Structures are given as C-alpha cells and as structure tokens.
User: Fold MAP3K TRAFs-binding domain-containing protein from Methanosarcina mazei.
Amino acid sequence: MSGNNYKSICFVAMPYGKKTDLATGTEIDFDKIYELAIKPAIEEEGLEPLRGDEELTGGIIHTTMFARLLLSEYVVADLTLSNPNVFYELGIRHAVKPFTTVPIYAKIHPLPFDVDMVRAIGYNLKTNVLSKGAVLSKEAAENLKSELMKRIQQAINGPQANDSPLFELIPKFPAIKLPYEVTYSFRERVSHDKEFHERLDRAKLKPSNQERCMALLEIQEDLVDLKGIQASILLDLMLSFRSVEAWNEMTDLCEAFPDYLKNNIFVRQQWAFSLNRRNKPGDRDKAVSLLTEVMKEYGPDPETLGILGRIHKDRYREAKEKGSIIALAALDESISTYVEGFNSDPRDYYPGINAITLLIEKGDKEALKKAEQLAPLVSFAVARRGGVSSNNYWDLATVLELNCISSDWVSAVNVLPKVLDKAKESWMLKSTLDNLTILKQARICQGHNIEKLQEIIKEFEKCRCDL
Assistant:
C-alpha cells in the first residue's frame, strides 16, 4: 500500500470537447487545455485530477456531481464560456467551501460582473482568424500550468485564505456542516478505499491497544505526505486512533492535517477530544480554545458543548482527588456547560445525561431538583432515538444510566447485555463507566444501597478488559 493510492481529489468543472464561445464565435478545444495544462498541474502537485461527468441534462447536476462539489478537497473551475453548468457548480462550491477552489478563464473577454471579484487565473489563447479556432500555445500552457500549481500549493500548504466571495464578504457566513457519518456514506468510493479500510480493520484486531496503535502508525507512515491525501482517508485514520485510545497519536495526526481539514468542525471537535484525553501540559487549554472558536463561528451545539463539559468534568475530578478548593467551581462549570449543550438542541440527550449525573454528584437540594426536572426530558430525547429498541451503543448506554439513576434495576439488568454487546471500542465503555462510578460515589454519600449498581459496574469493567 502506498500513499499515492489515496491522493486528494481535485475536481475539475469545465466544458468538454470543442465548444464555441457565443460572444466571439471562437471555437475552443477544452480537452486540449485540460490535457496540456490543468491535468499536469494537478498531478505534479500530488493530487488526483477528476473531471466532471457528462451526465448533465436540463441543467440538473447528477447526484455524484453534488458529492464531488461538497466533498472534493480541491476544485478547479474553468469559467471561459460563462457555461451555466460550470457557474452552477461554482456557486454550490462557494456556498459550502470557504477555500481550496481555483477559478480559471481564457482571456478572450472579461469575466461576467457577478464573478469578477473572484481571484481567477487568466490564460491566453492563440486565435486563427480564418478558422476562428483558438488554441493553447506551448508557452501559454506552461504559464497556465505554473500559475495553477502556485495556487494549488497555496491551498495545500496554507495558511488558508478564503477564495469564496460569500465567506470573504459576509462575516460569519454559515458553512454547511456535514456530519462525518453523512460524508462517510455519501462520498464517492475510490478503488483503493476498500483495501485501506481492510488494513485498518486488521490493525484493530491486534491483541492489545499498544499493538493496534503500532499497526496504525505503520499505515500512517505509508501515507507519506499527509497534505496530499484524501480527507476521507485521514478522517478514518484519526477515528481508528481514537478507537484504540491512542490519544497522543490522534492528537499528532490532527496537528499534521492540511489547513483546510484542520478547519473542519468535526476535526476540531475530535482534536479537542483527544487533547483532553491525552492531557499533557497545555492540552486542555488548547482544547478549550479550539471549541471556543468553533462556537464563535457556528454557535453552540450539543457536540461541542458536550466535549467542553467533559473537559470541565475531568478538571473537577482531578481537583477533587487533590482536595483542591477549585473543585466545586469546576463542577459547576461542567454542569452549566452540559445544560447549555442540552438546551441548544434538546433532541440530543448526550449533554443532558451528563448534566444529570453531575447534578446528582453535587447533591444539594437545588441540584437534585434540577436533575429531577431534566430526567424526563432526557428520557424523551433518547426514546425518540429508539430507546431500548435502538442498536446504537450511546442510545442504549443512556437508557441504562437513566435506569440506574432512577434505581429501576429490573430495566437496567434487562438492557445491560445489549449495551455491552454494542460496545465496540473500550473508550466508549470507559465513558459510561465513568458516569456510573460518579453515580456510585454520590449514592454512597447519600446513604443509598449500591449493590445492584456495583454489579453493573463490574460487568462493564470485565467487558472493557475483554476489548
């Protein structure tokens, strides 16, 4: 396996074959322009060129075209003919990606006013007066290739610079946020993608997390230069490190990502997640900074605030173990962050269940009353996701936690086997185990019988060792 098999895609939106410019009557061979300048520029920068399909009818873009415009790491768009398809594609791209789009055009007439502000590369064509045909000379091809390579280099190596007029002119223009799960199922699969995932799967079957991590590092080394690798490949590798609790390697990988990927909201959330778990000096401050920037750009959401709440929760636990006076402040900060996360979208139960657990941990009259108020809302949220009938680990784990909170041991014992069966990664079990342990300590302080809860905790500990 070589990193050359997983090059980042540079999608090219342009006319095909010989087309006539209606304004000048000039016939242009766009296939020659692609072969002489565009394709070699992209390839020499270590990317994989991909032209658009010709399956376009009635101005409607084929589904795969949307996938390419949304998910391709880079795009080159030739605006020469003011072709409606190309302009439509450029409009979609500019609405979803602030950078990594490079417009080009033949200087046979100015660009239309609507796109005159974009930073486009102009190229010269040599016109035959008799035939009214226009060709790209050898010198012009080299110039276009050189300019394209410079712009692609800038996009790959950063620092990132907005090339979408929407993101440039409108402060805080809201980009479309595609969840990783959507991109995973929606993106176009390449021929080597299956081989890569099979290798990831084999690495994760090693006997221990240390061996799994070493196997994943070998895969990363084979990718060589990460800046020219498909985003989907890099994201899958990042999540594989997460699955084996390789926090140092996951963090280092995120830091090595190209700028366009570092700016991705999902990457920033996971980067902060791994920084908090690694917890070297300065890691948590950096994690908080990453999440704060995400909220400044996109507003509060359950995932971002859930990770931020976890950071404050870990700070609380460490301060409590040391007997530090700041423990209560960290606990209050974690509770308020989780509550804010749940309130930002009450359909997402994750921050809500964590808020309830910590409110019970705090244990005063006001906190317990708030926990009692939140419990039915969180129960409703997880029930909407299928509750005990779900096949998702987090849905089931939340049902279990709610049962333990309400001391419904019959329901807890019934759902426990399904929870453990759906746990595929040890860090997932640890997250639930942490909450159950917090609940156990709180119940001890409040004089409750913890026998049933302790039995459930032991099953989690046993299952985690097996993974």
Observations:
- Residues 189-278 form one domain.
- The longest strand covers residues 101-106.
- The radius of gyration is 27 Å.
